[in-house]
Here is the input.
Amino acid sequence: MTQDTAVRPRFSLMSREQCEAIHLASLELLRRTGVRVLHPEALRLLRQTDAVITDGTLVRLPPALVEWALKQAPSRIVLSRRGATQPAARLEGAEVNFGTGSDCNNYLNPRTGRHELFTTQTVTDCIRVVDALPEIGFCMSMGVPSDLPEGVSVFQHQFALMLRHTAKPVVFISAGRADCEAIVGMAAAAAGGLDQLRLNPTLLGYSQVTTPLIHPEESLAKLLYMAEMGLPMVHMPSPMMGGTAPMSMAAAMALGNAEVLSGIVIGQLKRAGTPMVYSTGLHHIDMRTTISVYGAPEFELARAAVTDMARYYGLPNWGYAGYSDSCVMDEQAASDATSSVLVALLTGQHLAHDVGYLEAGLTTSPEMIVFTAEMIARMRYFQQGFNVDADSLALELMHQQGPGGQYLSTDHTLKHFRDMWNPVLFSRQRLPTWKARGEKRLSDRLREKTLAIIESHQPAPLPDSVQAEIDYILKPKP
Here is the structure.
């Protein structure tokens, strides 16, 4: 067996004993306080267990049922590219995959620098940016097109745009079961059938718990359908410290964890082995503005704690990166993006979404996506560390060169110089060269690269037969 000689930075926030304390507190919440379950089928499944149901929809779960469900959920999920079987995003170990966020109304136009409502074209432009950047591993819809006809499903059309303009895995939003059925139908057409989609999933469903301790009917409809199809799902709460959750990290973690665990129980009761991604979108309220905060040390601590809990359970996890509270792509946005990417990599967030979010998730900026991709490449290099082996130590080479020697022309340098990180956007010019090349600031280079992608990148096309199937699914039914 080859010995691993790499020196890598690592970060873990909570000990196993502290994770156990959160777990036991969540079990007590589920046993004593319970959760509201507002879907008839989910209630029917729970009535077949030792769960206690009172007041019609209040469900209290025995710890043994929770422990059973955790044992059923797979410890790894692999997402594939459209039309391929090889893995595109591995949700396991220390793998980290970055992707965008969903459903912003506002688009920060890189051509004008102005905020405007998203259209079908600008959503498509953002998707093509995602497809072009190797550092971005999966796609979410980013924007809500304002120019769709009345009466059509926004979510189905968003998914169709993603399916047509990127081959990367997609995390999708939906309004309920009908949307899920249509979206899975489109994905299955592109995959060559439902069985192929199950074997090589190219999509992951997303639904939300209503904190505190409510599983809405609409969200459970999505969870139950995806479980029925054997497709992966993230069913997540977003506790808001000081609003919908206590104003302490430990209590909010225990509350959110209870919501996640009860969702896992429902998913596994529907179909044992349903692939589910662990996530608690723990935020806090800035009491001066009463808004949800992204760019804050508390949010980064929460991301690390959530990742630790997922690791404690041996489950794939859902994270955040590449976001900011800033309204524009400025120094604040760059700072927030950089720190969040580093935390995601050091903690091992399997799916780190929201790349490109500004204004705390109300605006998407394609320039922010491109900038964050550069930071991902840079921080991945930092995270991979360096080797300490015979070749890396190069003792014989240093002996040969001796005092006053040089290394520019050696085979060792030729072998290793490409190992160094080379920036695309960041400048390493000195003043005379920088002036001779137009005195371009980072913001200038960022805008140029973003516009070049939007104007020139061509995603891999779908076959005509799949395009026709998508059109048929999207066609309004009488």
Remarks:
- Residues 394-418 form one domain.
- The chain has two domains: 71-384, 394-418.
- The first helix runs from residue 16 to 33.
